[in-house]
């Protein structure tokens, strides 16, 4: 499967595009998010799916729709990494304690 190249958009373009989507939806209350991101995305050169994701995440971060906020997602990622490291450390400590227990008492069956 061929994956498209990732494009990193500058923060100014990202904010401008999201602002234009919000303004377009404010001017035309019947305009859906999908229609707005397609229209604005073509004008500013941003993939509509990318722009839709930005707008949805901004709404989540603002508390306007349910979901995991950006701050929470970062914290969850940090906690998961810490959890992996602690599990790894526990495995090492368990192996070390087992090794030293065998060394101290040769009668144990391990």
TrEMBL record:
GO terms for biological process: DNA transposition. Coiled coil: none annotated. SUPFAM superfamilies: Homeodomain-like. GO terms for molecular function: DNA binding; transposase activity. This is Transposase. It comes from Rhodoglobus vestalii.
